[in-house]
């Protein structure tokens, strides 16, 4: 695992990700098998991870040569999936993102091993290991959006998601057949299912164009901007941070407020340069707006070396 982790961090550096000393560690939870721990002591308020918005994986940033041949165009898939009110736009974007992950992995698997794929290390099994069914009473606590659901609600949601996956997979196969794409590049339905579980558990909702939330947290921007367009996004390094566990599962199940053990928070911001150390005046360069946008994680508590990063997503 160490060599794969080293390759992952090298790939992160190659796409502009910067961070404190962090490492990937295995957890005891099968439904949430990896997380991030600090390699040094961190002060409250310190910047932990900074990711360029253009290095995020979502429907706005993924384009050009990084798109696998088997993947249908975003616009066509969204129009198809949302037709006649089948599902909302965010759900459709999540399914397209799952298709991207599955198709990219399949393309890497069948291609010449000597051929280098730009995002291969960022989408490896080390980073996105196989996950069990998240729609179970045992596993629902690893997925923030499912924590408050009853067993009956989980069953209904699981059936709906499986129907949506069947619809997505049929569209994927139809697109490949129409375009004459080799069947070798088509991921299996199980690969799509696994990719969707990854997106369900790990994707973050980011505003279109990386609209800055700072100095407020991203959650505040989303809460106060109901018309803000959002993209489900996989964010290198940041999406390895696990959801903070609730201190009381009983409280969560009964819908009561429960304390969380989160120790970091997510922001979107604009990269800034100081004109001079004495004036501390900031010059914000936005000649290419998306190039200056960042997704960052800051510590909300002082952390000791070896502490796991945990974030509140509710």
UniProtKB/TrEMBL annotation:
InterPro entries: SET_dom_sf (IPR046341). Gene3D superfamilies: set domain protein methyltransferase, domain 1 (3.90.1410.10). It comes from the Eukaryota. This is SET domain-containing protein. It comes from Leishmania shawi.
């Amino acid at each position: 695992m160490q060599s794969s982790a080293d390759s992952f961090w090298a790939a992160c550096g190659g796409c502009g990700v910067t961070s404190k000393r962090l490492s990937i560690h295995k957890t005891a939870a099968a439904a949430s098998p990896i997380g991030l721990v600090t390699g040094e002591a961190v002060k409250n308020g310190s910047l932990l991870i900074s990711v360029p918005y253009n290095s995020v994986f979502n429907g706005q940033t993924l384009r050009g040569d990084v798109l696998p041949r088997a993947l249908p165009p975003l616009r066509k898939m969204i129009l198809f999936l949302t037709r006649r009110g089948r599902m909302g736009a965010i759900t459709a974007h999540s399914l397209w993102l799952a298709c991207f992950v599955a198709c990219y992995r399949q393309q890497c698997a069948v291609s010449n091993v000597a051929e280098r794929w730009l995002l291969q290390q960022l989408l490896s099994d080390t980073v996105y290991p196989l996950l069990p069914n998240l729609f179970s009473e045992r596993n629902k606590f690893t997925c923030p959006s499912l924590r408050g659901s009853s067993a009956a609600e989980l069953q209904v949601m699981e059936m709906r998601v499986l129907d949506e996956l069947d619809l997505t997979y049929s569209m994927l196969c139809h697109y490949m057949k129409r375009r004459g794409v080799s069947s070798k590049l088509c991921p299996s339905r199980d690969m799509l299912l696994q990719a969707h579980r990854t997106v369900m558990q790990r994707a973050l909702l980011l505003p279109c164009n990386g609209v800055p939330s700072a100095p407020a947290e991203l959650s505040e921007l989303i809460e106060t901007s109901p018309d803000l367009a959002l993209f489900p996004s996989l964010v290198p390094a940041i999406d390895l941070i696990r959801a903070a566990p609730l201190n009381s599962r009983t409280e969560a199940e009964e819908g009561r407020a429960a304390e969380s053990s989160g120790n970091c928070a997510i922001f979107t911001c604009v990269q800034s340069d100081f004109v001079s150390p004495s004036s501390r005046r900031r010059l914000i360069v936005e000649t290419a707006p998306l190039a200056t946008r960042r997704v960052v994680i800051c510590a909300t508590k002082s952390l000791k070396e070896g502490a796991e990063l945990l974030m509140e997503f509710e």
